[in-house]
Amino acid sequence: VANNDLGTPQLLPSLAALTNPVIGTNFDLLIENNPGSIGDFYLLGNPSAFDLTPIGIPCSLETDGILATIAGVPGVANTIMVPNLPGLVGQSLNSQGATLDVSAGNPFFVLFTNSIDFTFGDI
């Protein structure tokens, strides 16, 4: 929970991993706690640390999104296919969600979730 500029507590969205990233399978991510969202985005890439509070967004960008930025439907898990490449085992991936939130009292319009670091595994 964070306080926005209006002084009202606001529940920030969160990213949840519903399954683990195993090569040759799919894994699912879901952005939760975003009732005012009109669109979700999943960022996949390398870890990054960019504080967004100086520009008025009460969070930080934790993923560079260089591997993929995937649009999603609010409240619906996003399934990501992991290629069956043995070279991926042990490799890391950072993910973070972003939601377009136009609910009343949200002056930011975009909110970022927590980030999750993954290590690819084998079946």
Question: What would you note in describing this structure?
Answer:
With 123 residues, this protein is mostly beta strands. It has strands spanning 2-3, 9-10, 14-17, 26-32, 37-45, 47-51, 60-63, 68-72, 78-81, 92-101, 110-119. Strands 8-5-10-11 form a four-stranded antiparallel sheet, with no helix packed on it. A three-stranded antiparallel sheet has the order 3-4-9, with no helix packed on it. A hairpin with a 5-residue loop joins strand 1 (2-3) and strand 2. The protein is globular and about 45 Å long.
Rg over CA atoms, rounded to whole Å, is: 15 Å
Total of DSSP H or I helical runs spanning 4+ residues: 0
**Strand-residue fraction?**
over 45%
Strand order of the largest sheet: 8-5-10-11
Uncertain ranges: 1-7
Q: Given the helix and strand composition, which structural class is it?
A: mainly beta
- General shape: globular
Distance between the termini: 37 Å
Mean pLDDT, as a whole number?
A: 84
The H/E string reads EEEEEEEEEEE
Please give the share of residues in helix: under 10%
Largest sheet: 4 strands, antiparallel
Number of strands: 11
Topology overview:
Elements: E1 2-3, E2 9-10, E3 14-17, E4 26-32, E5 37-45, E6 47-51, E7 60-63, E8 68-72, E9 78-81, E10 92-101, E11 110-119
Antiparallel strand pairs: 1-2, 3-4, 4-9, 5-8, 5-10, 6-7, 10-11
